[in-house]
Design goal:
Number of strands: 4
Number of helices: 3
Order of helices and strands: EHHHEEE
Helix content: 25-40%
Radius of gyration: 15 Å
Oligomer: single chain
Shape: globular
Strand content: 25-35%
Mean pLDDT: 86
């Protein structure tokens, strides 16, 4: 897998992932009503990661060999005082329950 910060050109994949009913069952925002709504969500994510003090970063996740889009993930940092963060991710169904961890993490 590879990942990079989400960008405006990821709109089609971003929207397609968000309108899958099975993916939505774990999502608190619900299915976007249109691609325009997805565009607003994507613009907000890109804007968040371009702030002077970044508190949220969202990434597109792709397969290394084909560069095919398989999902997104985001990290949201809490205040520096607590030094904690929340991580969430969404993947296309065919990638659910697949082990794709980097080698150092597989031994736990």
């Amino acid at each position: 897998m590879t990942y990079q910060l989400l960008k405006a050109s990821d709109l089609q994949e971003f929207h397609a992932l968000h309108i899958i009913t099975e993916v939505d069952q774990f999502n608190t925002m619900g299915i976007p009503e249109s691609i325009t709504v997805s565009q607003q969500l994507l613009d907000e994510a890109v804007k968040d990661q371009n702030k002077k003090t970044v508190t949220k970063a969202t990434y597109s996740i792709k397969l290394k060999d084909t560069e095919g889009f398989i999902g997104i993930c985001s990290i949201i940092w809490s205040s520096k005082k607590y030094a904690k963060a929340e991580l969430w991710m969404k993947f296309y169904l065919k990638f659910w329950n697949k082990v794709m961890l980097p080698r150092p993490f597989r031994d736990f």
